[in-house]
DNA sequence: ACACAAAGTCAAGTAAGCTTTACTTTGTGT
DNA sequence: ACACAAAGTAAAGCTTACTTGACTTTGTGT
């Protein structure tokens, strides 16, 4: 699952730590998601959508894998 | 996290087992999600959105709980 | 009343998301 | 070259998503 978190952060000049704070998760969690270690939970995806004022589908890309 | 799976199934006359098959999860997983035992993963939410041709936000409702 | 399909539920196990702590790497400014 | 901030990574532990198997409950048709 790809995502645009890095870009969205860059647009706002946010660090991974800043985003972690906004989403109420650890910095490592943001890093792991950005680097593709695992997918966020659905609740976390909703939070991200709220923070960036975008739809989940506009942040995360399913790319139909298995 | 609330969801409209039961209604969407009803519209199509699908059983929980039918939906489970379509989403490639167990029947118990569908039941647990419908009855609020736990939230689906993001990939599963994407699959549901694809199957029903809706946006994730139109199927699942975050309802801002902590 | 009986049979059957669908839904609900429980237990035990595996896998994935997330935490904390701690360390290394990369990039930038001075 | 040095210092510092940001990013990356890793291990161990906890929680949540999901599995299989088995059983109970509910609803419908006959």
From TrEMBL, chains A, B:
Keywords associated with the record: DNA-binding
GO molecular function per UniProt: DNA binding
Taxonomy, superkingdom: Bacteria
Entries under Gene3D superfamilies matching the protein: lambda repressor-like DNA-binding domains
InterPro entries in the record: Cro/C1-type_HTH, Lambda_DNA-bd_dom_sf
Every HTH cro/C1-type domain range: 5-59
SMART domains named among the record's database cross-references: HTH_XRE
PROSITE patterns assigned to the protein according to its UniProt record, in alphabetical order: HTH_CROC1
Protein name as it appears in the record: Transcriptional regulator
């Amino acid at each position: 699952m790809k995502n645009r978190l890095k870009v969205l952060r860059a647009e706002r000049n946010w660090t991974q730590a800043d985003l972690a704070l906004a989403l109420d998760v650890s910095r490592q969690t943001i890093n792991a998601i950005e680097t593709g270690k695992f997918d966020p939970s659905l609740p976390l995806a909703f939070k991200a959508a709220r923070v960036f004022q975008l739809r989940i589908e506009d942040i995360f890309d399913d790319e139909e894998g298995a």
